[in-house]
Write a structure and sequence with these properties.
The protein is of the alpha+beta class and 78 residues long. It is built from one helix and four strands, in the order ββββα. The chain has one helix spanning 60-77; strands at residues 6-11, 20-26, 32-45, 48-55. The longest helix is centred in the C-terminal third of the chain and has 18 residues, at 60-77.
Length: 78
């Protein structure tokens, strides 16, 4: 789950609220965006964790790539 403000994801590893993680995001178009994500929400679900994170210092160009990708994905799913 991705938007221009952040990302939601499942992970088996225990991450820390407030921590910033360096990652590469692969969009459905196979584009890869380098990002820094600050963890702002954690929910324990069975044997996994559901996280919410906000982007830190994301360049405007990459935000537009995410916005366009999400828009196209929404229209192709309908």
């Amino acid at each position: 789950d991705i938007s221009t403000s952040g990302i939601g994801f499942n992970c088996n590893e225990a991450l820390t609220i407030g921590a910033v993680y360096d990652c590469d995001l692969t969009l459905w178009t196979k584009d890869v965006i380098h990002a820094f994500i600050e963890i702002v929400r954690i929910v324990k679900s069975d044997s996994t964790f559901v996280y919410g994170g906000i982007f830190i210092g994301m360049p405007e160009m990459d935000l537009k790539r995410i916005e366009i990708s999400a828009t196209v994905e929404t229209y192709t799913a309908e």
